[in-house]
Amino acid sequence: MTKTLNIIGGGMAGSEAAWQAANQGISVVIHEMRPKVGTFAHQTGNLGEMVCSNSFRSDDNEQNAVGLLHWEMRQANGLIMNIAEKHRIPAGGALAVDREPFAESVTAALKAHPNISVSYDEITELPDDGHWIVATGPLTSDALSASIAKATGAEALAFFDAIAPIIYFDTIDMSQAWMQSRYDKGETEEERTAYLNCPMDKAQYEAFIDALMAADKTQFKDGETAKYFDGCLPVEVMAERGRETLRFGPMKPVGLTNPHAPDDKPYAVVQLRRDNALGTLYNIVGFQTKMTYGAQKEVLRMIPGLENAEFARLGGIHRNTFLNSPTLLTHDMKLKTHPNLRFAGQITGVEGYVESAAMGLLAGRMAAAEINGDDLPAVPQVTAMGALVSHITGGADAKTFQPMNVNFGLFPPVDGLKGGRKGRKDRYKAYTDRAKAEWLGWLGQEKLAAE
């Protein structure tokens, strides 16, 4: 085998894998088919482009598993987290970014690295030799998907994913809407007012639910079948599960006070989050949709404050694919039948930008260690990284395997701590304290292995 690491796909996982391996002295080639070959969701040829949301979710590294994953990636000099910090915009306790300059900076950093080159070509067949990481994500091309299916001896699993609409801020009626993060969360006034809120009374909510359920929806192609991922359900699918589902989900009215009518408690609240640093674009939180474009405009303009809304991007739905990783991948993310291939990112069955980048980080480091002839220690399962990779490479039940976000349910229990809601704060702090110590230890051992 050559000493070059080839990476198929320049999304979150591929970008992070390339950065990590290159920093270990490995020559890396990123193979990205965009912009020559486009996808339903991508708009540019930039590496690290965000297509669904501009949020990396919670940044709390003591009480939240995804925040802990942020912390672990930062300790490993993660490219995605470092650049996200540079393009951070207010989002309460979440880490959200101005998506276009974020992707431009990811692209610039990778192209400026002396050990990295980018080849804009489509790889249609899995290679038989050389060192490769497949990080093509949920929108893997049809040709490569067919090659993967042939190599694994089974059809890739599939699920439908949706993206939320984006609205121009200057078309929102601020005499009805107001700016506030739930429970005024955030250390600065900007963070405490990071979200835009549109209130509904009961009659408005009931009419909205009726319209949502009656709206025209995107029809799938003949023979196209897939499940929805529970963490990214279209808003109308949630409504179909019960008329109150949205009020206890993305439209919950808790932790908010309407300054236009402080004595009136809203029955439901639609939240929008800033989508760029200028504050000219806002996306509707939790409103992924499969409504047709015409129906979206009609139904979403029923939301108080959005009657005259203009859309920078309408929502949509697309079919995503992923491997049944517990049956197909080894503990170090190699395809069992093709040990020259590692898989990383959403195609492995993790869900979310952060999780995808994290699996890219591990795959890049594992590949670099192998090429350098180093003996890389196993990632501790008590870390966020270890819990997630252990889940997808064997911890999950292959029969019911579905895309998974990082969560504390994947972590081994801490002895002596009580379960249940009352003990949750202490339990989560114990998880994160333990994980941080083990992750720093692993990073130190990894450095020693490379010396």
TrEMBL record:
Location in or out of the cell: Cytoplasm
For the biological process aspect of GO, one term held by this record is:
tRNA wobble uridine modification
* Coiled-coil parts of chain: none
* Coiled coil is among the record's keywords: no
In terms of Pfam families, this protein maps to: GIDA
Q: Looking at the keywords, is NADP present? A: yes
The MnmG N-terminal domain, residue ranges: 5-374
Q: According to the UniProt entry, what is the EC number of this protein? A: 2.1.1.74
Q: Which reaction does this enzyme catalyse, per its entry?
A: uridine(54) in tRNA + (6R)-5,10-methylene-5,6,7,8-tetrahydrofolate + NADPH + H(+) = 5-methyluridine(54) in tRNA + (6S)-5,6,7,8-tetrahydrofolate + NADP(+); uridine(54) in tRNA + (6R)-5,10-methylene-5,6,7,8-tetrahydrofolate + NADH + H(+) = 5-methyluridine(54) in tRNA + (6S)-5,6,7,8-tetrahydrofolate + NAD(+)
Principal EC category: transferase
The entry's keywords: Cytoplasm, FAD, Flavoprotein, Methyltransferase, NAD, NADP, Transferase, tRNA processing
Q: Which GO terms describe its molecular function?
A: flavin adenine dinucleotide binding; tRNA (uracil(54)-C5)-methyltransferase activity, 5,10-methylenetetrahydrofolate-dependent
Source superkingdom? Bacteria
Give cofactor(s), names only.
FAD
Which positions in this protein are listed as binding FAD?
Answer: 9-14
**What start and end residues bound the annotated signal peptide?**
none
Q: Record's SUPFAM superfamilies?
A: FAD/NAD(P)-binding domain
A cellular component term, taken from the record's GO annotations: cytosol
- Quote the PANTHER family the UniProt record gives: GLUCOSE INHIBITED DIVISION PROTEIN A, METHYLENETETRAHYDROFOLATE--TRNA-(URACIL-5-)-METHYLTRANSFERASE TRMFO
Q: What does this protein do?
A: NAD-binding protein involved in the addition of a carboxymethylaminomethyl (cmnm) group at the wobble position (U34) of certain tRNAs, forming tRNA-cmnm(5)s(2)U34.
Family designation: Belongs to the MnmG family. TrmFO subfamily.
- Protein name per its UniProtKB record: Methylenetetrahydrofolate--tRNA-(uracil-5-)-methyltransferase TrmFO
Q: Which organism is it from?
A: Nereida ignava
List the taxonomic lineage. Bacteria, Pseudomonadati, Pseudomonadota, Alphaproteobacteria, Rhodobacterales
